[in-house]
Design goal:
By secondary structure, the chain is an alpha+beta fold. It has helices spanning 2-21, 38-51, and strands spanning 28-33, 69-72, 84-85, 88-89, 94-101, 104-109, 114-117, 123-125.
Length: 127
């Protein structure tokens, strides 16, 4: 009887501790821009440029309006370098995902895992 009580008590404590240590990801969901605009595109360009170590990029006005993901090709190298194949860069691409995190728009650089919040931009959950 004491052994059963000890096992049950230990199991309950372990279950409770596991629940406390689990990360709640229910507040993080893929998102779209609520109202895409030139201003939101410019804010995204600046933020992603910063995540790419200051590399300037240009995006379409409709970025993150239909899909939560974005792929950015790397800048082309000189034509005579060994990094170009048929005029295309053979280095890895950079991809980004727009999330809604606790009511704020957040962009994740998928290759590095770096997350940055977008200021003054509204997002909605991508269903």
């Amino acid at each position: 009887m004491k052994l059963n009580t000890l096992i049950i008590g230990t199991s309950v404590i372990a279950w409770m501790l596991c629940g406390c240590l689990t990360k709640d990801t229910g507040l993080l969901s893929e998102a779209l821009l609520e109202q895409p605009s030139i201003e939101s595109r410019q804010a995204i360009e600046v933020l992603i440029g910063e995540m790419l170590k200051g590399r300037p990029i240009k995006l379409a006005d409709t970025v993150f309006s239909k899909k939560s993901s974005l792929t950015v090709e790397r800048r082309q190298s000189a034509p005579n370098s060994n990094k170009v194949l048929n005029g295309r860069e053979i280095a890895a691409i950079d991809s980004f995902t727009l999330f809604l995190n606790n009511g704020q728009c957040m962009i994740r650089h998928n290759q590095t895992g770096q997350n940055r919040f977008l200021e003054n931009v509204k997002c909605i959950t991508n269903l």
